[in-house]
Amino acid sequence: MSCFGGGPNFCPECGNVLPLPGIADVVCCPGCSFRIPVSEFSGQEIYSAVVFNPVEQTAVSQDDEDSEMKGPVIDRRCSRCNKEGMIYHTRQMRSADEGQTVFFSCIHCRYQEKEDS
């Protein structure tokens, strides 16, 4: 006797969603040993659809010369112009058990360097 009653797409024994009928003449439940002949699905139309979210267009400025450099300024000497003052930001570029990568940008000459911490 079946414990579950939810429709033809569900296993009547354990309640799992049954896979779509394929080439085989039986559909097997992935959760238990229940089997149902494909002929039981005759007359049903089975379809699927993939719906993607619309892509939002954003105006991104590609002109870095006019963009204002933002971020915390630290007392670090630029290796190109030898002046103090660099902006930094961090990213987790490697695996989670390793340190972050710190990116530095000089506020005077815009030279960029990175440091793996």
From TrEMBL:
This is DNA-directed RNA polymerase subunit. Zn(2+) 1 binds at C11, C14, C29, C32. It comes from the Eukaryota. It comes from Neolamprologus brichardi. Belongs to the archaeal rpoM/eukaryotic RPA12/RPB9/RPC11 RNA polymerase family. One of its GO terms (biological process) is termination of RNA polymerase I transcription. GO terms for molecular function: DNA-directed RNA polymerase activity; nucleic acid binding; zinc ion binding. It holds the Pfam family Zn_ribbon_TFIIS. It is found in: Nucleus, Nucleolus. The keyword Nucleus applies. PANTHER family: DNA-DIRECTED RNA POLYMERASE (PTHR11239), DNA-DIRECTED RNA POLYMERASE I SUBUNIT RPA12 (PTHR11239:SF14). GO terms for cellular component: nucleoplasm; RNA polymerase I complex. DNA-dependent RNA polymerase catalyzes the transcription of DNA into RNA using the four ribonucleoside triphosphates as substrates. Core component of RNA polymerase I (Pol I), a DNA-dependent RNA polymerase which synthesizes ribosomal RNA precursors using the four ribonucleoside triphosphates as substrates. Can mediate Pol I proofreading of the nascent RNA transcript. Anchors into the Pol I active site to monitor transcription fidelity and cleave mis-incorporated 5'-ribonucleotides. Residues 74-114 form the TFIIS-type domain. Zn(2+) 2 binds at C78, C81, C106, C109. The keyword Zinc applies.
